[in-house]
Design a protein that fits this description.
heterodimer; A: alpha+beta; 4 domains; 10-stranded mixed sheet; elongated; B: AttH-like fold; 13-stranded antiparallel sheet; 10-stranded antiparallel sheet; 23 strands
Chain lengths: 904, 404
């Protein structure tokens, strides 16, 4: 066929390398024609955009959507990081060194020694804690106990009033003498209509305390440009008593005589401070937090890039559509002397122009998306899983804007490259001769070659997976996921081609023709549609690949979440066995921060209905420079843990022996610690070696947990306090009565969260759902983009085939039948994409579950596939495809016969 | 961390005495509230050198003129303040239980001012310190225990010596390195200021302080100032005031002028004039004349005259201080001029500033030439004080001024 030969010749030009491009660019810049280029460009682009507003709009929209999602996630990540940094700045903004204990507190008696140490210019103590506000559900305050006698050189905020002059007017007697005197930020005061003299109830460690707003804090934003409004200050003495931290400091901030000698002074200070406290530059803490969040944010970042990828398919489609519509124009341009290169430049510049508009809109959209949807979700997930954060301000940095333009325009250029070449390569003779047009749109894709590329990509994906799991680095897992998508995308032409031929053959032999009689019956309809599918492979394969990618993402993530959830269910069955759980309700808002009042614990232990009470305490410890959660548990009822390598009972018994700990699977993975290994943990008495009695499965923290028995904890930390309790009833039938009783006895003002076993399971899955809500948002957007892609492709195809449609109509096809052909083609696209997407999605879920989760978090997830929902995919994709094909089908039905066949 | 000039406000506290604007004087003292300085106080020494924690404010105030062997002259000021935070009824046991009470919750906070006037070099250096004394770095002890400080704020200390004299030490690194280590021994018995055990500061019962002085303390020791910090042997004379009160001043008062005068005939004068907003002097102002044997004569407002002769304008605070005075005490036939030895002896501390410095006295007693030296304190001349007072229209302001 003529078309085949043409395809081969064009193929060479299709793949001209960037070096050639650069050379040609230089040539063109020096040529005289280029001077006409701006005028030509205006004529070419502006007229087209005016005529085809929808196409231009979609072009801009697809870029904007991809960029929005990408940027929103970047902003949310960055803002969360900034929020952490701000909270560090707030307490350690100007300090050169900081003494801090990951456990949250250390003995205050080291303070005078620090103040007197060589090289220390000034040192101020700080007590920090969190309180929830019963009158403002969900709100909290970070309470800072400050020492006004020593903190002046460390000033990052001022207390007093809304203006600098007011700040001087603090009533010092009241500040020091009144246990209720509290300063809050003016931002917080405004948000909650609080004014000086108003009472404010705080809930701390399960107790309610009434305080009075005595002054306002003005954050010194000029220093860092960021701040946290949920901060309150009071005198350090009253803060210690409010927070139950008598005798303890949260940190000591230090200024040095010679800031450059920080390491030297720090070395001198270490013997002076309690053994579990660290002396380091405050900046190292933000580094720790960034490391802790790195995996989480990398995951989100990778997902956000997928939205750009899907956007690229869309851009490809819109540019392709506009190239098709302007074939005649392009022909004229070429005929009057424009070079191929110049035509390509026209299309590329047009794509970049629309791209730039799209990116700009996308930046606005990204900010809005971050503000109203993603930002809050991410902050919530981080607070639940890592540490308390509230994102007050969104941070859009020049770098983020630049990256949006870079990735946005980069993807536009990449996606527009092929269609633009196609437009440039239009032979002027063919383009201008009306009669030959109908045969032009035959596939120019060489399916087998793409198939080879696809198989190669899948091979690369496999290799990347293996590498990611064995030698690392872990991010190769994302490379693997990318190549899975790419590999399946490359197989789309071959699969489409094979499928359409199979279908044709099937229809030929099928009942439609064997019965005969009807020239354009359903069989013919199917045959025409499948022929079309094959003939327009260069368009259809691309949209099938795009839809496939979106479906694969949906399926892959669904399967991963399902498997994860199933695994967590199994884990919960073992881990959550007590009948009732009780914790200070502040822990709901604050993560684990509030302590359980000892008298309540005592009361529970003496309750005749209660058989046993297990306790849990969580503190931070520094292990190999990272802050890691350590959980102290009492009671052998609580956990029937599942251990890596079995022998659970034996290991559980060993756990209670002196100097033993357990670690979770993610911890073992991250720190390369195994059963029987020694693990050094800093305790208030100094570093102690503990033996790892076992590694157990746990899905609550990706950073890992060290578990220690309560007795062992008290032995080394001398701290009996606990954070939550698990209650076992003598008679489980009294569950509801006991819960009611506990609520009445201990919880008149909502001081505690009291969950029955069932309720806490529900709560766990609620948190689980929250964690993955963000992936749901991305998934939905990907599918929307893909469906828009179908619409675009079919619109383009209908335009390309106007003459053919005209001929069909002229030989007797009804309007409905034409529409039927288009809808059938749309349905075939949907079905093929579903088929490929499900396959790719299953592969992707393997990568997500076994490679990415394992490599990043060290979680072992038992893969279970939600077959029902996976197999339902083709149904709703089919419906979506039919919906997307509706308008193009209508349009095809309305093609005027006379105009269409004018050239025949 | 906190940028409030909290500690700069502390320097105010020595001016802050009254928790209420004179109303307290009309009310009966409530149990657990601050004690008022009421007539009839019986001074007992050395017990009264120690703190009086039932009163809101208290200070130990040293000023002195000293000279080196090669006639280099210096003036010094070292003042310890205690400002009560928790009234007697709320005060806590001093013992800290690690899990019970916070050691940072103290009944009072401590602050101190330290200044050296280098008369030869024409330089004035001053600095301040403050602390709550949570770890005992600042506090008060018994003056009867020798060789241990009984008033201290880190290394600024006042201690009793075995021979009954006191040792006054302070060392600062900024704004310039300076240090004093002085032994002071009183030449005369303590002087009870005022009448019937109280020094009245404004009209009304309890608007007064308990106030005694050592008016001539023989002084010897070392003094160093400047980057070399070379300790120089010095001798000279100092003046010591100890005063405690809860509630002193009226709302119409804005500051005061205070003079201590050590004359070469071994007599001394202490004079203060309470300045009112309307520019007049409150008639409660008074003074004391101490003869060579230590016998005191109370001087009522009408017994002495203070007439400003020359003013000096501070560029730092925009305040205008009268630095030269015509001082007459007709009953003692004293007619002298009191002049600042150096104009800029202003402690320009943020928020509040006051002038406290070395003076020279020259004049006559009954026609015979009379010279001497002393210290002068001028307060309420900066605009900031008025601004502070204006902050609280409800009259709840605790910013009231009082002279010694």
């Amino acid at each position: 066929m003529v078309a085949g030969a043409t395809a081969r010749t064009h193929k060479v030009q299709l793949w001209q390398r960037p070096a050639d491009f650069a050379r040609k660019l230089a040539q063109v810049v020096s040529s005289t024609m280029t001077r006409q280029f701006p005028r030509l460009f205006l004529w070419h682009v502006a007229r087209h955009a005016r005529r085809h507003k929808l196409l231009a709009g979609l072009n801009v929209f697809s870029v904007a959507l991809g960029v929005s999602v990408y940027l929103a996630i970047q902003i949310a990540n960055h803002s969360a990081n900034q929020s952490f940094a701000a909270s560090i700045d707030l307490v350690a903004g100007k300090a050169n060194l900081e003494v801090r204990s990951p456990g949250g507190g250390f003995d205050e008696r080291c303070l005078p020694k620090i103040q007197a140490a060589a090289g220390v210019k000034a040192a101020t103590p700080l007590v920090e804690g969190y309180a929830t506000l019963p009158d403002y559900p969900g709100e909290y305050l970070q309470v800072l106990g400050v020492d006004i006698f020593t903190n002046l050189p460390f000033a990052t905020f001022s207390v007093g009033g809304p203006t600098p002059a007011d700040a001087e007017n603090l009533d010092i007697d009241r500040w020091l003498g009144d246990p209720q005197a509290l300063a809050i930020t003016d931002e917080f005061a405004r948000a909650h209509s609080l004014k000086l003299g108003d009472a404010l109830r705080l809930q701390v460690n399960g107790r309610q305390q009434s305080l009075v707003v005595r002054s306002l804090i003005r954050l010194d934003l000029t220093a860092a440009g960021r701040g946290n409004s949920r901060v309150a200050a009071m005198d350090i003495g009253w803060a210690q008593e409010l927070l139950g931290k008598q005798g303890q400091l949260s940190s000591v901030q230090i200024l040095l005589d010679q800031p450059r000698d920080a390491e030297g002074v720090a070395a001198g200070l270490r013997p002076l401070v309690p053994a579990d406290a660290t002396v380091s530059a405050p900046g190292q803490r933000s580094g720790q937090i960034e490391r802790m969040l790195a995996s989480f944010e990398l995951n989100l970042g990778a997902l956000s890039l997928i939205s750009l990828l899907v956007g690229m398919f869309l851009i490809y489609n819109t540019i392709a559509a506009s190239v098709v519509r302007r074939r005649v124009e392009t022909g004229i341009l070429r005929a009057i002397g424009a070079t191929r290169f110049e035509v390509q430049c026209l299309f590329l510049t047009e794509a970049l122009l629309f791209g730039a508009i799209g990116v700009t809109l996308g930046i606005v959209g990204g900010v809005l998306l971050a503000r109203f949807l993603i930002g809050r979700e991410i902050a919530r997930v981080i607070s639940t899983l890592y540490m308390l954060v509230s994102v007050d301000r969104l941070h859009l940095t020049p770098l983020l804007v630049f990256s949006a333009y870079f990735f946005g325009l980069g993807s536009v250029l990449a996606a527009a490259w092929l269609p633009a070449r196609e437009g440039a390569n239009a032979d002027p003779v063919t383009a201008l001769s009306l009669g030959l047009g109908a045969t032009r749109d035959q596939s120019r894709l060489h399916a087998p070659r793409w198939l080879r590329w696809g198989l190669l990509a899948l091979g690369v994906a496999l290799a990347a997976s293996v590498l990611s799991l064995t030698t690392g680095p872990a991010w190769l897992g994302f490379g693997s996921a990318f190549f899975v998508l790419l590999g399946f995308a490359f197989t789309a032409p071959a699969v489409t081609s094979v499928a359409s031929r199979l279908l044709e053959r099937l229809v030929k032999r099928g009942p439609g023709t064997s019965r005969g009689g009807r020239t354009l019956g359903s069989g013919v309809l199917l045959r025409l549609a499948s022929q079309n599918l094959h003939r327009s492979l260069h368009r259809n394969a691309v949209i099938i690949a795009a839809l496939m990618a979106a479906i694969a993402m949906t399926v892959g993530i669904s399967v991963m979440i399902h498997a994860f959830r199933r695994t967590v269910e199994i884990w919960i069955d073992r881990a959550i066995v007590a009948d009732i759980f009780m914790t200070p309700s502040a822990n709901e808002t604050l993560g684990n921060g509030a302590l359980f009042p000892p008298e309540v614990l005592d009361g529970l232990r003496h309750d005749p209905r209660i058989a046993a009470v297990d306790t849990v305490r969580e503190v931070g410890v520094t292990i190999r420079g990272d802050r890691v959660s350590m959980v102290a548990v009492s009671g052998d009822n609580r956990n029937r843990l599942a251990f890596v390598g079995g022998h659970g009972e034996e290991k559980q018994r060993a756990f209670y022996l002196p100097d033993r700990v357990l670690v979770t699977e993610p911890f073992a993975h991250r720190y390369h610690v195994g059963e029987g290994d020694r693990l050094q943990i800093p305790t208030p008495e100094g570093p102690r070696d503990f033996t790892v009695a076992g590694v157990y499965y746990d899905y609550s923290r990706d950073a890992g947990i060290v578990a220690i028995s309560h007795d062992n904890f008290v032995r080394h930390w001398h701290d009996e306090r606990v954070m939550s309790v698990g209650i076992y009833l003598k008679n489980p039938a009294t569950l509801d009565d006991t819960v009611d009783h506990l609520r009445q006895a201990y919880n008149p003002h909502g001081e505690f969260l009291i969950f029955s076993n069932r309720a806490i399971r529900e709560r766990v899955f609620e948190i689980f759902g929250q964690t993955f809500r963000i992936t749901g948002v991305l998934r939905a957007i990907a599918v929307v983009i893909a469906v828009v892609g179908i619409f675009l492709t079919l619109t383009t195809l209908v335009t390309e085939r106007e003459r053919e449609i005209g001929v069909l109509r002229a030989i007797g096809a009804s309007r409905g039948q034409i529409q039927g052909v288009v809808l059938t083609e749309s349905a075939l696209i949907g079905l093929l994409a579903s088929f490929l997407g499900m396959l790719a999605g299953l592969c992707l879920s393997l990568v997500l579950t076994f490679v990415i989760n394992k490599a990043f978090f060290g979680w072992t997830i038992q893969l279970t596939v939600p077959w029902a929902s996976v197999l339902a995919t083709p149904i709703w994709i089919l419906l979506a495809a039919l919906a997307a094909g509706w308008l193009p089908a209508l349009r095809a039905g309305r093609v005027p016969i006379a105009a269409a066949i004018r050239s025949e | 961390m906190m940028k409030t000039t909290f500690h700069t406000i502390f320097c105010l506290a020595f001016l802050l005495l009254s928790p209420a604007d004179g109303r307290a004087s009309a009310e009966a003292p409530t149990p657990g509230a601050w004690s008022l300085a009421l007539p009839g106080w019986q001074y007992r020494f050395p017990a009264d050198h120690a703190i009086h924690p039932d009163y809101k404010t208290e200070w130990w105030y040293f000023t002195g003129n000293v000279v080196t062997a090669d006639r280099k002259e210096y003036g010094y000021e070292l003042t310890f303040f205690r400002q009560g935070v928790l009234p007697p009824g709320q005060r806590r046991a001093p013992v800290q239980d690690e899990r019970g009470r916070s050691r940072f919750v103290q009944g009072d906070f401590k602050f101190a001012h330290f200044a050296i006037t280098d008369l030869g070099g024409g330089q004035f250096h001053y600095t301040q310190k403050s602390s709550r004394g949570a770890f005992g770095e600042a506090g008060f002890g018994s003056p009867e225990q020798a060789a241990k400080p009984f008033v201290w704020l880190e290394n600024w200390q006042l201690a009793s010596e075995p021979d009954g004299s006191w040792r006054v030490t302070a060392r600062a690194a900024e704004p310039v390195p300076m240090q004093i280590d002085l032994l002071v021994a009183s030449q005369k018995p303590p002087v009870i200021e005022g009448t019937d055990g109280v020094s009245q500061k404004s009209t009304g019962l309890g608007n007064a302080s308990h106030y005694y002085s050592f008016t001539r303390l023989a002084t010897r020791g070392t003094l160093a100032v400047g980057t070399e910090m070379k300790a120089q042997l010095v001798t000279g004379e100092s003046w010591f005031d100890h005063e405690w009160a809860s509630n002193q001043l009226g709302t119409d008062q804005i500051g005061w002028n205070w003079f201590c005068i050590q004359l070469d005939d071994q007599t001394e004068l202490m004079l203060y004039a309470m300045r009112r907003k309307d520019g007049t002097v409150d008639p409660v102002s008074s003074g004391t004349y101490i003869d060579a044997q230590g016998v005191t004569t109370h001087l009522r407002f009408e017994d002495f005259q203070l007439q400003p002769l020359r003013t000096w304008h501070s560029l730092k605070t925009d305040a205008t201080y009268p630095l030269s005075w015509h001082v007459t005490v007709p009953s003692q036939a004293i007619d002298t001029t009191v002049s600042a030895r150096l104009d800029d002896q202003e402690l320009a501390l943020p928020q509040i500033s006051y002038w406290e410095g070395v003076t020279a006295i020259s004049g006559t007693r009954a026609g015979r030439r009379l010279i001497g030296h002393g210290y002068m304190e001028l307060t309420g001349y900066t605009g900031a004080l008025a601004g502070l007072k204006a902050k609280d229209p409800a009259g709840e302001s605790s910013l009231r001024t009082s002279p010694r």
